[in-house]
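Quick entry, no commentary yet.
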Amino acid sequence: MAGNTKVLGLIFASMHDKSVKDMTEHRTMGSIMFGGRYRLIDFPLSNMVNSNFYEVGVITKSNYGSLLDHVGSGREWDLARKKGGLHLLPPFSQTGSSEGVYRGRLEALNNVWSFLEHSKADYVVMSDCDFVTNIDFRPVIKQHIETKADITTVYGKYMYNEENKTLSSINVLEMNPDGKITNVLVDPLISGECNISLDMFVMSREFLSTLVKDAASKGKYSLIADCLQARANDYNFMGYEHKGYFTRIDSNKSYFEANLALLDSETRNKLFLPDAPIYTKIGDNGPAKYGLEANVKNSLIADGCIIEGTVENCVIFRGVKVEKGSVVKNCVLQQGTKVGSNCSINYVITDKNVEVSDGHVVNGSETYPLYVKKNGKL
């Protein structure tokens, strides 16, 4: 990529809210907690910063209060700048949706087009928040320029089983030997390894302008259906294979599995790279404290926690308390969860500030982890 090439990053923080609707009742998907101390938006935001993007726009939709609180001015990502920096873009649609919010990427972009018009970027990189991965966008942009692509879509090899599909659609790319995308299949009736879109797209700002204006004039709103699917023969759509680690958050179960996968050091080493760190909002918590009877095995314990019982195979977020005599196994306990004494909890996801009273037994299963909503009391 040429050193003087200017790139604008755009993150859709709410594109897949419905696929994890329990956790997005009071927040966007981008602000869902992950890995003990992160939010899902930290990954695309850090990827863009590590790729030397100096201007990033975050397109919201609804329930975005916690997202605004988390990203703030963008200081933790070195985006608190007078020129460029982080921009939080309005959620409401001017046309189209009866709900007053956008229905797809193209409609959302039309709503915030005045922001893009004032950008001096040559290229635009767009990303959703449903994939957790660490990617350098610079080689993607380089390939995009060299192949003279109209759109480059980042994809990865994925074992797909149509019987296990979730509320969130999966987009499978068909490509010729040169990497040109010839078709996009949405939730196809196939099983086995395939090329799935990682919901990351590169295009020139000029081409994006053409797409957005054309879509607005015809009442179209979906980048996938109305562009990649409908016009594959009209344009040069290319694929870029991301060979690094990635995982998709498209259900409570996949969220649970993605968190517990971090207990494997090999997975952590693939995701958290020393030369490409994942940044997040810094907390002011003290270190975790362990009682004399504490017993912790194979778990991630964030700062600010107080552990006095047994914790095994768990991801424990900031400020969680587990009292004496309690046994917590195979769980994801989000920030501020309090587990009373002599409790037994297994295969459970707790949202923020959940309270489990003394002596309670709470069990989910490996295939269906139990979810307890924010501020819930058991």
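second:
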Amino acid sequence: MRTLIIVTLSLLVAACALDQSPQDGNLGPHVSVRGEARVEVRPDTLTVRARVTHTADEVVGATGNVDRRTAAAIEAARAVGVADEDIQALSISVQPMWDWHDGRRSFRGHEAARTIVIKLRDIEVWPDLLAGLINARVDRFDSVEADHSDRDGIMREAMQSAVRDARSRADLLAEAADARVASVFSISEQSRGWTQPEAREQMMAMRSDQQAAPAAYEPGVIMITSEVAAVFVLRGRRGR
């Protein structure tokens, strides 16, 4: 019963103060809320990071093999319409490889490796590109990341929706307290998120006479979230 009396008195004090105006730094009656929004979009671009490696006794043998297969991978990308500016073939790295047997080290060869980065602006051709890269004897796919070309625009849309959600919550709380929202005092962004589906492809052993064929691909959806905190000034309802 004591708690009920305290709450009732607090509500009465707040109700009497609804018509006061904020002055001298005193905000007066207000409501603090959080607004949230979630937007889902289908990706329209893919960024593929693939790798070509080869180990040989001589450096020239290792790098020569990697160069040939890298050229084949680049041609596979061009064949599906990827522009040269969307293809990166990073520098070849070479390092000696060693094996250990009974505590003794034996030289296995020189390993050459090269990473290829491809930005695919038409994700419908990804199955064809994947088959072409496999047939070019790419060793592995480090990542296949889905994205959207209008990332900034979608983030702004999510933030605006979060602000509208905050105002809607403030209106609901104000109505329940027999008040109205008069103006916004402050709005601040609390968090934002961009969760993109990622498909990882692991290469399987293939005989030299095997050829990969295009397979079905479902890119999923990108999840964009935004959260804001807002403070709204309240006024009492008049004319009642």
